[in-house]
Design a protein that fits this description.
It is a multi-pass membrane protein. Keywords: Antiport, Cell membrane, Ion transport, Membrane, Transmembrane, Transmembrane helix, Transport. This is Probable multidrug resistance protein NorM. The mean pLDDT is 89. It contains 17 helices and no strands. The chain has one domain. Helix 4 packs parallel to helix 9. With 454 residues, it is mostly helical.
Length: 454
């Protein structure tokens, strides 16, 4: 189904070219979102110092823990909207849109309050060093005040992705990203506002992106048009959104809790290692966003084709996404590994910080294609409406492995290298479990659909 030039017909025609057309703007959108934080880090590292750099970096894992539950729930909105849109259920589509946007606003307000009240407690819990904690708390509190805008953009963009439109969210992020970069430079270099300046710049940019995506929905003449007078929660659609979204959000949150544990282990090496990890983790984040775009594509394409009962096309979607994900991950991962020292110099000129960053990249970049495969299988399952079991397996495989590694093996082999070997090990173990789960669910779905069509 296609209603305008921005949408992609996911249910008919060739697949790989459409997957690329859908994924590429999504990759660039994800990278631009990362650039919000990257610009913060670069400006702070270059113009404020290594302590401020460590302060901003020390908040990353915590911010992800707080936000990923609600961002995960937006995947439920995406899956439900895609299914209704492909099957032409306009009333259900409209009510899903209004429920999703209302949920985004409520989530954002809850996040803002929690972030402001719990910032210092959470950072202390992670063992943030005394020389950076005050700046970390300041950055985190200001950053979280922008959560309502952040949530509104992400849920609005999830609706647009559900109908095959990834181009306009990219355009909106280009505008807000440029605003973010300019404000960061002005507030830090001209007004000497430090970490507060970069946080304020990020809030303003998120406000702009949320206004643009809401305007896009408001001016649409299709079933996903937004009417502010119709905002509200429809329980039947909220339950379906939660059915897919809450397990996805819990999975993402728990995985980020394991990353927070890992951050605590990095903190034990001191502020130099923290700064190196911050810079390396930012580079690593670009890999994640690129591969995650393919996972998002797999979920959206699977959901629309599930809505119209095209089982063979669903299988082809997963296969083509596997090829695309591995290709992207190997290309970018190898590039990040070989050019790691040069890339790290963008963030800092401190040789010790760069050395620590290279040590982190060595075990997280080249094998990253395994993470792509690990995420694709649950993505396809969520597209079919199955989210609970993939969540449990991901938590066992990824989080369980890292907890055992950090508390069982790491104390006897204290080095950054050994710490980050836990990444590829956890990815491989999780792939094996998810593959078995996918085979069982796929068989059940095919039998169920064939009975309905008989």
């Amino acid at each position: 189904m296609k209603n305008n030039k921005y949408e992609i017909d996911m249910c008919n025609g060739t697949l790989m070219d459409k997957l690329i057309s859908f994924s590429l703007p999504l990759m660039l959108s994800g990278i631009l979102q990362l650039l919000f934080n990257a610009v913060d880090i670069i400006v702070v590292g270059r113009f404020t110092g290594s302590q401020a750099l460590a302060a901003v970096g020390s908040t990353t894992a915590l911010i992800n823990i707080f936000t990923n539950l609600f961002i995960g729930i937006s995947l439920g909105a995406n899956v439900l909207a895609a299914r209704f849109y492909a099957s032409g259920k306009e009333k259900e589509m409209s009510e899903t849109v209004h429920t999703s946007i209302t949920l985004a606003l409520i989530s954002g307000l809850v996040m803002a309050l929690a972030g402001v009240l719990l910032a210092r407690f959470a950072l202390n819990l992670m063992g943030t060093p005394n020389d950076v904690i005050d700046q970390s708390v300041l950055y985190m509190r200001i950053y979280f005040l922008g959560m309502p805008f952040f949530m509104l953009y992400n849920y609005g963009a999830a609706i647009l992705r559900a109908v095959g439109d990834t181009k306009r969210p990219l355009f909106f992020l280009v505008i807000s990203g440029m605003t973010n970069a300019v404000l960061n430079l002005v507030l830090v270099i001209v007004f000497h506002m430090g970490v507060a300046g970069v946080a304020i710049g990020t809030i303003v940019s998120q406000l702009i992106s949320s206004i643009l995506v809401l305007r896009c929905l408001y001016t649409s003449n299709t079933s996903y048009r937004l009417y502010f007078s119709k905002l509200g929660i429809k329980t039947q659609y909220l339950k379906q959104i939660f059915q897919v979204g809450i397990p996805a959000g819990i999975q993402s949150t728990v995985i980020n809790l394991s990353n927070a544990l890992l951050q605590s282990s990095v903190n034990s090496f001191g502020s130099v290692a923290m700064a190196g990890y911050t810079a390396a983790n930012n580079i690593f984040g670009f890999l994640y966003m690129s591969v995650n775009a393919v996972t998002q594509s797999c979920m959206s394409f699977t959901s629309q084709n599930y809505g119209v009962k095209k089982l063979k096309r669903m299988d082809r979607v997963l296969l083509d996404c596997m090829i695309l994900s591995v290709g992207v991950a190997l290309t970018l991962g190898c590039g990040a590994y070989f050019f790691g020292p040069e890339l790290l110099k963008i963030y800092t000129s401190d040789a010790d910080v760069i050395r620590c960053g290279v040590e982190v990249l060595a075990f997280t970049t080249v094998p990253y294609f395994c993470c792509g495969i690990m995420d694709l299988l649950p993505g396809a399952l969520r597209g079919m409406g199955y989210s609970g079991v993939p969540m449990i397996l991901s938590i066992i495989g990824t989080v369980g492995t890292r907890i055992v590694w950090i508390f069982g093996l790491f104390p006897a082999h204290r080095s950054l290298s050994f710490l980050f070997i836990s990444y590829p090990v956890s990815w491989i173990l999780t792939i094996l479990m998810q593959a078995v789960c996918f085979c069982f669910v796929r068989k059940h779905v095919h039998q169920s659909v064939n009975r309905d069509l008989a």
